[in-house]
């Protein structure tokens, strides 16, 4: 065992409560409301523990609801047996215990981000500084919270990171659900602005996301062994799949996993010749063995170490000795450790292979795109860029054809200037320009639909997208605008504006990028395809009745296409666009957009009320009406020509 008795501090911060634990020979808890205006007193309580190893169980995002009783039922049938077997020092729930909260706020999905204030962060910082009265070698600080660090907005990044680097080593959180959040880990380096002061020893801190109980039934066992932190995530099987018996679970507390270790290398570090593992089981354990594998030698077993139950403490802690000096390596992933357990029924359970480094070297796993999106992207700034670039594109998309039409057909001086430049281009470039102009001119030719698209875009900019119950089903109806929710205050007649911004990006960006923008493009494409059909029809007339009979039709078709673009270009390339597969592909695109639109509307109906959202024209009815009207207009004209 480790000779020095270390202590650890857990700091739980979910923007409503601050919660601190520390232990050496006892666990000390601090409970403080940090959301109020005043300076509330801090209440601290303690209870004793034995030895240097302690562990807690973390659960996150329970979302208990009367509409989903299985979530609460599984707390009894799954979590309770697990807690009886694990016997943690503490059970920590990192937020979202229920769905409709004690403090009224905007309902999901318009609550993606945390919104701490400067006052709240100042309270957190002051409480962390309280623990600086203890020697830094004997105190380790941790955070437990709901939101990811960089999903906490309305504060400068340096302001948040400064608080998190007050001797903190890792942040454990929830909030994100399902497979999206599995193994979502990142080491935040302590690279801040030069004017931000942080402790000298602060090299950075870890952020470890835990998946949800709501859908995945995940729990985490987190252990502290002489200041070294390890954790193991468990997905509890559904009660209808297996009996309520808890399955044997192994948590290696030392050495730490080199992929997410908190005790990174330091100068003059002394090696611990320990292997420690917690074994949680409802069965009697008769044998525990640790095996060391060498990845440089085709994963051969290089040592087996028997682990013995430590009888001095009332814990399922198994301990063994080895020569840690033998496993020095320049690679943090060369050696791997696995613990196997045999119970009295002969059933064997093995832990996952995990790399370790006795020197404290950190293994650098390749970052995934999910980790990049969650930990690296500053969504508050990126949201505005994505949103307004999309609207700018749509404005140009609608206005450019009309400007080109004016310049090409009504402005002789522009034609005189443009003609030699266009003719000098290579034939392939001219062909590409011809197709582009054809698409824009013909797509915007229907004035009624074009004007309706312009008005619809203006409505999205200035009018409500939909109405719904933003806070709860028993409160007043609120309206969601592009700028945020507009809600009447519960205690007055004042109107609260721009709520849920930028959290509502999970609504606005999918709707604009997956529905509105492709819908506008498909409307243009269907009209351009119709025009191509006309051109193809005119060629048939030319072959059947001679050039005189088809010249009038051909002139009507190409009246908006500048002649300098068609010079030297065969119309056969445009005629290929009118083949049957093109229209079928466009109709398939309309169907896909409709499905995306239906999925978005359904999610919002479930979140904010079926009746109100379904009766909101801008969100629910406008996109399908646009597509139906376009399909009807193009189909009717084509059928007329075929007759």
UniProtKB/TrEMBL annotation:
Transmembrane segments annotated in the record for this chain: 382-400, 448-467, 504-527, 586-609, 621-638
Coiled-coil boundaries: none
SUPFAM superfamilies: Metallo-dependent phosphatases
Signal peptide location: 1-18
Name this protein carries in UniProt: Ser Thr protein phosphatase family protein
Domain TMEM62 C-terminal: 385-617
PANTHER family (UniProt xref): HELICASE RELATED, METALLOPHOSPHOESTERASE-RELATED
Alphabetized InterPro entries for the sequence: Ig_TMM62, Metallo-depent_PP-like, TMEM62_C
């Amino acid at each position: 065992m480790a000779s020095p008795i270390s202590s650890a501090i857990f700091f739980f911060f979910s923007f409503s409560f601050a919660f601190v634990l520390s232990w050496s020979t006892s666990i000390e808890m601090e409970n403080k409301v940090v959301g109020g205006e005043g300076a509330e007193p801090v209440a601290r309580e303690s209870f004793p523990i034995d030895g240097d190893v302690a562990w807690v169980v973390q659960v996150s995002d329970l979302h208990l609801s009367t509409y989903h009783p299985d979530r609460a039922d599984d707390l009894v049938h799954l979590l309770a047996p697990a807690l009886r077997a694990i016997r943690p020092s503490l059970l920590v729930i990192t937020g979202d215990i229920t769905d409709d909260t004690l403090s009224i706020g905007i309902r999901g999905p318009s609550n993606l981000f945390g919104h701490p204030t400067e006052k709240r962060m100042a309270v957190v910082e002051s409480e962390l500084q309280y623990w600086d009265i203890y020697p830094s070698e004997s105190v380790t600080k941790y955070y437990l919270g709901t939101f990811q660090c960089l999903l906490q907005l309305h504060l400068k990044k340096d302001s948040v990171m400064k608080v998190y680097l007050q001797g903190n080593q890792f942040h454990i959180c929830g909030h994100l659900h399902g497979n999206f959040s599995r193994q979502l880990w990142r080491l935040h380096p302590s690279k801040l602005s030069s004017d931000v002061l942080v402790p000298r020893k602060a090299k950075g801190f870890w952020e470890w996301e835990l998946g949800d109980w709501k859908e995945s039934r995940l729990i985490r066992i987190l252990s502290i062994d002489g200041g070294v932190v390890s954790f193991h995530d468990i997905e509890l099987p559904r009660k209808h799949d297996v009996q309520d018996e808890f399955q044997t679970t192994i948590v290696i507390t030392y050495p730490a996993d080199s992929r997410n270790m908190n005790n990174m290398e330091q100068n003059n570090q002394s090696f611990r010749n320990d292997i420690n593992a917690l074994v949680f089981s409802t069965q009697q354990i008769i044998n525990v063995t640790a095996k060391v594998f060498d990845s440089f030698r085709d994963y051969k077993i290089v040592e087996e170490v028997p682990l013995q139950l430590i009888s001095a403490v009332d814990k399922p802690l198994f301990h063994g000795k080895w020569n840690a000096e033998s496993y020095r390596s320049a690679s943090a992933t060369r050696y791997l450790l696995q613990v196997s357990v045999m119970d009295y029924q002969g059933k064997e359970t093995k832990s996952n292979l995990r790399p370790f480094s006795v020197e404290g070297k950190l293994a650098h796993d390749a970052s995934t795109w999910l980790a990049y999106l969650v930990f690296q992207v500053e969504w508050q700034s990126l949201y505005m860029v994505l949103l307004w670039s999309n609207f700018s594109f749509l404005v140009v998309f609608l206005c450019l054809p009309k400007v080109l039409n004016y310049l090409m057909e009504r402005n002789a001086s522009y034609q005189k200037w443009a003609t030699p430049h266009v003719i000098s281009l290579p034939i392939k470039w001219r062909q590409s320009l011809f197709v582009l102009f054809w698409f824009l001119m013909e797509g915007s030719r229907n004035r009624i639909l074009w004007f309706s698209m312009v008005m619809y875009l203006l409505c999205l900019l200035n009018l409500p997208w939909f109405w719904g119950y933003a806070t709860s089903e028993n409160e007043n109806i609120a309206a969601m605008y592009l700028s945020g929710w507009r809600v009447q205050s519960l205690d007055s007649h004042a109107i609260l504006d721009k709520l849920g911004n930028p959290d509502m990006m999970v609504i606005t960006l999918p709707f604009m990028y997956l529905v509105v923008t492709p819908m506008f493009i498909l409307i243009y494409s269907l009209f351009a395809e119709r025009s191509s059909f006309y051109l193809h029809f005119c060629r048939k007339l030319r072959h059947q009745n001679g050039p005189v009979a088809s010249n009038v039709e051909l002139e009507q078709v190409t009246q908006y296409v500048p002649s300098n673009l068609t010079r030297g270009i065969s119309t056969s390339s445009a005629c290929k666009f009118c083949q049957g597969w093109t229209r079928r592909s466009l109709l398939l695109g309309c169907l896909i957009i409709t499905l995306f639109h239906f999925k978005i509307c359904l999610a919002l109906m479930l979140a904010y009320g079926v009746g109100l959202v379904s009766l909101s024209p801008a969100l629910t009815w406008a996109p399908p009406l646009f597509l139906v009207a376009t399909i009807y207009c193009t189909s009717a004209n084509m059928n007329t020509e075929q007759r």
